[in-house]
Design brief:
5-stranded antiparallel β-sheet; alpha/beta; Rubrerythrin, domain 2; 4 domains; FAD/NAD(P)-binding domain
């Protein structure tokens, strides 16, 4: 068997490459083992994800994108900013840099194609009849040309060396004068939810894969997790004509965010929309039956069948890159609250991958301000600095809009200010100060606030 016949597969989570010719001897996989012959319980030896999270790794020699790749060790004019990640945070950082300096070199490395789209749209796109093509606002090639940056798509970052100012990727090593980490966060998938049986709607590829499976027919879909994303997806799928079962370990939807009276109003709305809510249920496993159905079992012994299962069990920041580079990490990459600089010199981070005082920052709203602060710091320009404030939370359940100002606290006291069929208004106080304001109902966000929210960090 010649080397041309051997195939390679790359881990979508960490970039490790499984080479059939080499195998994985440390895990008991002998050299020459075909990928399809690897046992299903084999996991990535680097990050621990399952076999289904690997995909074929092959770059065609005539891929036009290769022409734009910088060479190993490339660093233009001694000033080259490398951005890891081509989500909203990565592109916003590139725009902020380019608006301040038309000449500085910018290289963007991304594990996907890098096409630009608005991630919040994914949780309301099914009922709109959207497709992958309609969700893409701008192709990565077009965006990179417009900003005059070097795009390195379909490439995984496997290591960072702050001392050498280098980023190691699956396509070579890049040198940088400044590094910006915009790697985002990945779904937190419990061991009881096998990746091969559950969809994760956290990026365009995951959403488009599910959309193709359920488009055109009414399907029975089980969504595990009734947090922000799970509730939005349940509402969207039901509006698109699907039969939805929403499950959560909590007794009510959005129970960790809303007071009980508001969660009950949301539950009532879901029931009226035909969404079946199974609260207080902990999933013990998901498997595929011989007829292709997904079967979900709970610790209480309950069994539910569906055409598709979606896991909406939260997000976590992959700590491998950060810890490997010696960066401080606390549920996210620890950054300076003003400059967004990490614990390493000339390394910055923004978006879903960062945390402030151990609290992850997973909202779109602050990203533009974070990118602006980073751009000024990278270019040594004067800037007042980023000031982190809890963003406004808008739950995109169209039949029952929810608007939350400020971050609720476990020990805060909720009070009802208005309770009508059109809107429920509440505020939460702590030590006599209003720290959060909630509106839920058709008129949410359309009325004047009667209470001033205290500034909280």
């Amino acid at each position: 068997m010649t080397s041309k016949q051997w195939k390679q597969f790359i881990c979508r989570a960490c970039g490790l490459i499984y080479d059939e010719q080499v195998g994985d001897p440390d895990s008991g996989i002998a050299p020459g083992t075909r990928f399809e012959d690897i046992p299903q319980d084999w996991v990535c030896p680097l990050c621990g994800v399952v076999k289904s999270d690997f995909e074929p790794y092959e770059i065609q020699p005539d891929d036009p994108r290769r022409k734009s790749l910088p060479s190993v060790g490339y660093c233009a004019k001694g000033r080259e900013v490398v951005i890891v990640g081509a989500g909203h945070a990565g592109w916003t950082a590139a725009q902020a840099l380019r608006s301040l300096d038309p000449d500085i070199g910018i290289t963007m490395v991304t594990a996907c194609s890098g096409d630009r789209y608005l991630k919040p749209e994914l949780s309301i796109a099914m009922s709109r009849g959207a497709t992958r093509e309609t969700l893409v606002r701008e192709s990565a090639i077009e965006a990179s040309r417009k900003l005059d940056i070097r795009l390195v798509p379909d490439t995984f970052v496997v290591g960072i060396s702050p001392e050498l100012r280098q980023v190691r990727t699956t396509r070579g090593t890049l040198s940088y004068s400044s590094l910006i980490l915009a790697q985002g966060a990945r779904p937190a998938l419990p061991a009881t939810l096998p990746a091969s049986q559950c969809w994760r709607v956290n990026d365009l590829e995951g959403w488009s894969g599910l959309q193709k499976k359920i488009h055109g027919d009414s399907r029975r879909i089980i969504i595990i997790g009734a947090g922000l994303v799970g509730c939005e997806l349940a509402d969207d799928f039901a509006r698109a004509g699907h039969q939805v079962v929403l499950m959560d370990v909590q007794a009510l939807p959005l129970a960790s965010l809303l007071p009980e009276i508001a969660s009950k109003r949301l539950l009532q709305n879901f029931e009226q929309a035909g969404i079946q809510f199974c609260g207080g249920e902990s999933v013990s496993g998901v498997m595929q039956s011989p007829d292709g159905q997904r079967v979900v079992t709970t610790q209480s012994g309950r069994t539910l069948a569906a055409d598709e299962v979606v896991a909406a069990t939260g997000l976590i920041t992959d700590e491998r890159l950060a810890r490997g580079a010696g960066l401080q990490f606390n549920r996210g990459i620890v950054v300076d609250p003003s400059t967004l600089r990490t614990s390493a010199r000339d390394v910055y981070a923004l978006g879903d991958c960062v945390s402030f005082e151990g609290i992850p920052c997973r909202f779109i709203e602050p990203i533009a301000k974070q990118a602006d602060s980073i751009a000024h710091a990278v270019l040594n320009r004067a800037h007042p600095g980023y000031s982190h404030q809890p963003p406004v939370i808008r739950v995109k359940t169209k039949s029952l809009p929810i608007l939350l100002h400020g971050a609720p606290r476990p020990n805060g006291c909720w009070s009802v200010l208005e309770d009508s069929p059109d809107v429920l208004v509440m505020h939460q106080t702590e030590n006599g100060q209003v720290i959060s304001m909630l509106e839920i109902g058709p008129l949410a966000g359309r009325r004047r606030k009667s209470s001033k929210i205290a500034s909280v960090s």
